[in-house]
Specification:
Layout (H helix, E strand, L loop, with lengths): L1 H12 L10 E5 L5 H7 L3 E5 L4 H15 L4 E4 L11 H9 L5 E3 L11 H18 L11 E4 H6 L9 H11 L6
Parallel strand pairs: 1-2
Antiparallel strand pairs: 3-5, 4-5
Length: 179
């Protein structure tokens, strides 16, 4: 699946003529061909020797963006659940200064998410609201966009899936604007 996602992503960002882009794949200790497939697509591959979890992978990617002085960083899961067509609408609030962080939602206008995931997601949204006073339609979304200010201030500590909720803590703590 990662090969298809990278092909779609590379094709889509060709339309961003005035924006310099770098595609980064974090291979989180996978035992499949993730790194070789990503390398064959001529993207930057960052590898973990062992699986560090979602939080570890995101921290590695966002740290790379921070150290390389990126203006914007976007995260997407490699399983095809995010549409590359959402990138431009997602980065627009960042570029226009309306948001420091944008988090996409798989539940707005989408079909096909299994019922068990919908229930888990809605429960996670409620927990996020109760703990972080931030309502979202998809607190566990892997589609996130950060401006430079957010990249410089957000400090990820968790290694696992809880990182999705940790982002809300960091957004609130640093008074970042979320869309």
């Amino acid at each position: 699946m990662i090969g298809t996602v990278l092909d779609e992503l590379k094709q889509h960002i060709k339309s961003f003529k005035k924006i310099q882009t770098t595609i980064i794949v974090v291979d989180d200790g996978s035992s499949d061909n993730t790194a070789s497939i990503a390398n064959s697509k001529q993207v930057k591959v960052l590898r973990h020797i062992i699986n560090r979890g979602l939080g570890g992978a995101l921290k590695t990617g966002l740290t790379y963006a921070k150290r390389n002085n990126f203006d914007i960083a976007l995260t997407m899961d490699s399983d095809g659940q995010h549409d590359v067509q959402d990138i431009l609408p997602g980065i627009t609030p960042i570029i226009t200064g309306q948001a420091d962080v944008v988090i996409g939602s798989r539940l707005l206008g989408q079909k096909g998410m299994p019922w068990d995931r919908i229930i888990i997601n809605k429960t996670s949204n409620l927990v996020t609201w109760l703990l972080f006073n931030q309502w979202t339609t998809d607190s566990q979304s892997g589609f996130r966009i950060f401006n430079k200010k957010a990249l410089q201030t957000i400090q990820i500590k968790s290694q696992g899936m809880e990182v999705s909720s940790e982002f809300f803590t960091e957004i609130r703590k640093h008074k970042l604007t979320l869309k």
